[in-house]
């Protein structure tokens, strides 16, 4: 059978058909194709189960790593905080230690000044009280000259 340039050549039908589950033969029986599909479905279910377990393990591992990282970060933060607190306390001790004697001297001077003021108050409170009572009770009632002259001019 020769073919000319204008004629199409017929392709015989394939002996096997590709499907999503694999290759099926035209000559295969319905029972064999069902068993192949059933086997392949079981394989898919097994693969899905395995994938799910892998994903679950990965999530658990990630969670564990995150918890460990958090603990390490907290430990670092606590160590840094303790270091800075110790440095602060040392600087406070240094500044307080240098003014210890000066602070004692200043405290003694302040106490002496307070005692002196208290003594002066005790001595003078009677005199000041009497002076205030005398000034309030002995008021001179007189009209100032400037006011008198204004009243005379208005009248």
UniProtKB/TrEMBL annotation:
<dbReference type="Pfam" id="PF03179">
    <property type="entry name" value="V-ATPase_G"/>
</dbReference>
<keyword id="KW-0813">Transport</keyword>
<keyword id="KW-0406">Ion transport</keyword>
<dbReference type="GO" id="GO:0000221">
    <property type="term" value="C:vacuolar proton-transporting V-type ATPase, V1 domain"/>
</dbReference>
<comment type="function">
    <text>Subunit of the V1 complex of vacuolar(H+)-ATPase (V-ATPase), a multisubunit enzyme composed of a peripheral complex (V1) that hydrolyzes ATP and a membrane integral complex (V0) that translocates protons. V-ATPase is responsible for acidifying and maintaining the pH of intracellular compartments and in some cell types, is targeted to the plasma membrane, where it is responsible for acidifying the extracellular environment.</text>
</comment>
<comment type="similarity">
    <text>Belongs to the V-ATPase G subunit family.</text>
</comment>
<keyword id="KW-0375">Hydrogen ion transport</keyword>
<protein>
    <recommendedName>
        <fullName>V-type proton ATPase subunit G</fullName>
    </recommendedName>
</protein>
<comment type="subunit">
    <text>V-ATPase is a heteromultimeric enzyme made up of two complexes: the ATP-hydrolytic V1 complex and the proton translocation V0 complex.</text>
</comment>
<dbReference type="GO" id="GO:0016887">
    <property type="term" value="F:ATP hydrolysis activity"/>
</dbReference>
<dbReference type="InterPro" id="IPR005124">
    <property type="entry name" value="V-ATPase_G"/>
</dbReference>
<dbReference type="GO" id="GO:0046961">
    <property type="term" value="F:proton-transporting ATPase activity, rotational mechanism"/>
</dbReference>
């Amino acid at each position: 059978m020769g073919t000319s340039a204008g004629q199409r050549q017929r392709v015989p039908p394939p002996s096997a058909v590709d499907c999503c589950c694999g290759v099926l033969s035209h000559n295969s029986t319905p029972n064999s194709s069902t068993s192949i599909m059933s086997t392949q479905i079981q394989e898919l279910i097994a693969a899905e189960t395995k994938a799910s377990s892998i994903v679950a393990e990965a999530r658990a591992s990630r969670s564990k790593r995150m918890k460990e990282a958090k603990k390490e970060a907290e430990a670092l933060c606590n160590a840094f905080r303790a270091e800075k607190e110790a440095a602060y306390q040392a600087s406070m001790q240094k500044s307080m230690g240098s003014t210890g004697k000066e602070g004692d001297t200043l405290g003694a001077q302040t106490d002496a000044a307070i005692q002196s003021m208290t003594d002066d108050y005790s001595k003078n409170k009677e005199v000041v009280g009497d002076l205030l009572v005398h000034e309030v009770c002995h008021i001179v009632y007189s009209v100032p000259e400037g006011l008198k002259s204004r009243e005379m001019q208005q009248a």
